[in-house]
Amino acid sequence: MSIRSFHPPVRTLMGPGPSDVHPRILEAMARPTIGHLDPRFIDMMDEMKALLHYAFKARNELTLPVSAPGSAGMETCFVNLVEPGDTVIVCQNGVFGGRMKENVERCGGKTVLVEDEWGMPVDPNKVADALKTHPEAKIVAFVQAETSTGACSDVETITRLAHEHGCLVIVDAVTSLGGSPLEVDEWNVDAIYSGSQKCLSCTPGLSPVSFNQHSIDVIKNRKTKVQSWFLDLSLVMNYWGGGTKRAYHHTAPINALYGLHEALVLLQEEGLENAWQRHRDMHIALKAGLEAMGLRFIVPEAARLPQLNAVAIPDGADDVQVRSALLNRYGLEIGAGLGALAGRIWRIGLMGYSASPKNILLCLSALEAVLAESKASIAAGAAINAAQKVLADRGY
Fold first, then answer.
1. Packing angle between helix 39-56 and helix 254-270, nearest 10 degrees?
2. What span, in angstroms and rounded, lies between the C-alpha atoms of 59 and 36?
3. What Rg value do the Cα atoms of the chain yield, rounded?
4. Distance of alpha carbon 316 from the chain centroid
5. At what positions is N6-(pyridoxal phosphate)lysine found (predicted)?
6. Is 80 exceeded by the pLDDT of residue 281?
7. Where are the beta strands (DSSP E) in 247-358?
8. At what angle do helices 272-293 and 254-270 cross, to 10 degrees?
9. What are the two backbone dihedrals, phi and then psi, of residue 323, each rounded to the nearest 5 degrees?
10. What distances in angstroms separate CA 159 from CA 173, 178, 185, 192, 279, one per listed residue?
11. For residues 79 and 87, what is the distance between their CA atoms, to the nearest angstrom?
12. Which residues contact 233 (CB under 8 A, 6 or more apart)?
């Protein structure tokens, strides 16, 4: 057997993640590896915390990147804050609310499920009703940016409701950090997690998290041990704490952290609000092209995520065949539907470095060509002009 070095094909990533990785991030990850307790690495860790404070718009001391993907960020929040017997209100309007429920149950907690139709945001009125019906609830957990549907929920309102009833909140911001407005301090979010591979344009494998003082107090006053040793924040914070004295916990993914550091530097250079606006502008241009083609969004306009565009598959189009043709002929990846929406929608991502005019025009031209060839029910010939007009009007 003779296995040679792996050389991946060049792709344009416009699915639900990962997104295209910025060349500066790839270059950063190729820099020399040093020890995870090296003084220079510790300096970089301190910078990383400051950069994450900027990205989250939070000053929480307990802010760090978990050495694993966003799913581990989710688990970090639940295993540290949920104890056996706790009641947790979980909002489910897509796949990832369901994963929150699973986490609660594995922690020995009791779930009160608030359900909304997939493609709709979480209804704050339903949350308010659940809080009134379950005064024993300790936590409200919900997804800001539901990656499976492209719907954005109201963090500020749901957090306020939870606090009025003495509950903490856990917020999933995997797809929103760096791409949608997020004000952790101003909205008083207790615990939040994200991922490196979406709007931050880094490689997968790291999960930024942030916990305010209220949630830290809950962690410190637990009656039971955190069920995960690796994700126990009372241990991890001794490694990611301030100053030069760091207690060894695990060997951090050094080069991956170089990449996240560079991603956050890029975000700082662009400006957080400018990044939010760029994602919004690119969404409006893509929307103009898709609608000119005759494609329909499944999420009401007011609740749409700019970075995750969920569109109904048109009549006459075969889901798998279209996505395969885009990948094999154009090197373009878009996402399939998940769960209840499998086979019914495509998920087109505009995240981070992928949110660019070049990618929008590639996506529209390739999608139109493949759909026209398959005799799908679309209007051909108008998509590119519609998108270009929006881009020109917005100065791109």
1. 40
2. 24
3. 21
4. 32
5. 198
6. yes
7. 308-312, 332-333, 335-336, 345-349
8. 80
9. -65, -35
10. 14, 20, 12, 12, 25
11. 14
12. 62, 76, 80, 211, 219, 226
* CA contacts within 13 A on the Cβ side of 347: 28
* pTM (two decimals): 0.96
Query: How many contiguous H segments (helices) and E segments (strands) does the chain have?
Result: 13, 14
pLDDT interval class at 243 (50, 70, 90): low
Q: Where in the chain is the domain with CATH 3.40.640.10?
A: 23-269
CATH code: domain 23-269 is: 3.40.640.10
Judged against a pLDDT cut of 80, whether residue 223 lies above it is answered with yes
Specify the DSSP element, H or E, that contains 326.
helix 319-330
DSSP for residue 304: B
Structure tokens given for 246: 């760091």
Q: What is the DSSP letter of 199?
A: T
Residue of 137, 149, 141, 150 whose CA lies nearest to 307? 150
Q: What's the 3-state SS for 134-175?
A: CCCCCEEEEECEECCCCEECCHHHHHHHHHHCCCEEEEECCC
Q: CA-CA distance, 120 to 123, in Å (whole number)? A: 8
Residue 152 pLDDT level (bands cut at 50, 70, 90): very high
Cis peptide upstream of residue 23 (ω within 30 degrees of 0): no
Closest CA to 105 of 122, 88, 130: 88
Element (H, E) at 203: none
Which residue reads 């991603």 in tokens?
263
- Check if the beta carbon of residue 231 is closer than 8 Å to that of residue 66: yes
CA distances to 63, 113, 350 from 92, in Å: 26, 7, 24
Cβ atoms < 10 Å from Cβ of 206: 28
> Which tokens is 361 given?
């025009």
Q: Give span(s): CATH 3.90.1150.10, the chain.
A: 272-393
Residue type, 336: A
Could you read off the pLDDT of 350-361 as tens digits, one per residue?
999 999 999 999
Closest by alpha carbon to 305, among 11, 70, 17?
Answer: 17
Annotated binding residue at 160?
no
Cβ neighbours of 59 (radius 10 Å): 12
Alpha-carbon distances of 314 from 120, 305, 309, 322, rounded to whole Å: 20, 21, 15, 11
